[in-house]
């Protein structure tokens, strides 16, 4: 799965003032990512506000994204949730044309035990026509997928090819890297952890801040891949504050405001999210000036 090396971005879903999907801005965003060197795109991950999209909207966004990308870079679809049977049904009805993999988040809210997480992904792996990327993000799901479960899934299912790890637990990263099959990939799911994770052996990042700063994030990943960590550290440090501001009042609220300031879409989000406050807008503008 060389397609998953380097920098990927979890695309935001732009909206119009009336709440409908802004496909013109989505096209602009996709071209901005590709033209800036992003290695691959993820359509409808958490950052895409998939939880508030209808079934029809998801299909329209995927179809549009495939057409707009036009095979210029690899494309990953986000299909995950906490109702295993529903996710399996979504995957069975999903048109995989134009996609190289499916990113599926560990079940949230239910707080399953490890065997439940294993059985959830087993059902997905058996139904999927595409390779699967696990996604562990305990801060959102309310439960952690342990390294033992990750490794068990990687060894038992050949089409489970990678994990996007956003646990922030370096002991966990070390254990995965030590015990994983040779061709199983560890991907950073947290922008500030990209450099140290890649120094350990991760192959890249699925980024949020990359929506707004794709050239910097893709260069950071490329430098880390090349072992140029001193040079990469300069980009890493420069992006720390703007990345924090992206999340302080919810994701993708912050990064949508940055994109608006860059002339790509508006900062509309769907409830229960709301746009960032005036104080955060001011802080973002100040940080954007520094990054110029």
From TrEMBL:
The keyword Amino-acid biosynthesis applies. It catalyses: L-aspartate 4-semialdehyde + pyruvate = (2S,4S)-4-hydroxy-2,3,4,5-tetrahydrodipicolinate + H2O + H(+). The active site is at residues 135, 164. It is an enzyme of class 4 (lyase). Pyruvate binds at residues 47, 206. CDD domains: DHDPS (cd00950). Keywords: Amino-acid biosynthesis, Cytoplasm, Diaminopimelate biosynthesis, Lyase, Lysine biosynthesis, Schiff base. The keyword Cytoplasm applies. Pfam families: DHDPS (PF00701). Pathway: Amino-acid biosynthesis; L-lysine biosynthesis via DAP pathway; (S)-tetrahydrodipicolinate from L-aspartate: step 3/4. GO terms for molecular function: 4-hydroxy-tetrahydrodipicolinate synthase activity. It is found in: Cytoplasm. The record marks 46, 109 as: Part of a proton relay during catalysis. InterPro entries: Aldolase_TIM (IPR013785), DapA (IPR005263), DapA-like (IPR002220). SMART domains: DHDPS (SM01130). Its EC number is 4.3.3.7. Homotetramer; dimer of dimers. Catalyzes the condensation of (S)-aspartate-beta-semialdehyde [(S)-ASA] and pyruvate to 4-hydroxy-tetrahydrodipicolinate (HTPA). NCBIfam families: dapA (TIGR00674). Belongs to the DapA family. This is 4-hydroxy-tetrahydrodipicolinate synthase.
């Amino acid at each position: 799965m060389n397609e998953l090396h380097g920098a990927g971005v979890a695309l935001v879903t732009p909206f119009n003032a009336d709440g409908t999907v802004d496909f013109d801005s989505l096209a602009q965003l996709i071209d901005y990512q590709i033209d800036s060197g992003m290695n691959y795109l993820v359509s409808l991950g958490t950052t895409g506000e998939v939880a508030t999209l209808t079934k029809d909207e998801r299909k329209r966004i995927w179809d549009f994204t495939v057409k707009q990308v036009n095979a210029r870079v690899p494309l990953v679809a986000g299909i995950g949730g906490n109702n295993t049977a529903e996710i399996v049904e979504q995957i069975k009805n999903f048109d995989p044309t134009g996609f190289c993999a499916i990113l599926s988040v560990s079940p949230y809210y239910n707080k399953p035990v490890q065997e439940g997480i294993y059985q959830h992904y087993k059902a997905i792996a058996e139904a999927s026509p595409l390779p699967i990327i696990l996604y562990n993000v305990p801060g959102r799901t309310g439960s952690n997928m342990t390294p033992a479960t990750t490794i068990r899934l990687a060894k038992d299912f050949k089409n489970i090819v990678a994990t996007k790890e956003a646990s922030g637990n370096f002991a966990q990263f070390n254990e995965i890297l030590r015990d994983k099959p040779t061709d199983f990939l560890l991907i950073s799911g947290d922008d500030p952890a990209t450099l140290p994770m890649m120094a350990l052996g991760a192959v890249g990042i699925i980024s949020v801040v990359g929506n707004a700063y794709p050239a910097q994030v893709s260069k950071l990943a490329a430098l880390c891949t090349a072992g140029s960590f001193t040079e990469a550290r300069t980009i890493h440090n420069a992006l720390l504050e703007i990345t924090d501001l992206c999340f302080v009042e919810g994701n993708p609220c912050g990064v949508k405001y940055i994109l608006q300031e860059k002339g790509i879409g508006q900062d509309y989000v769907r409830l229960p999210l709301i746009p960032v406050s005036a104080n955060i807008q001011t802080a973002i503008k100040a940080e954007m000036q520094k990054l110029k």
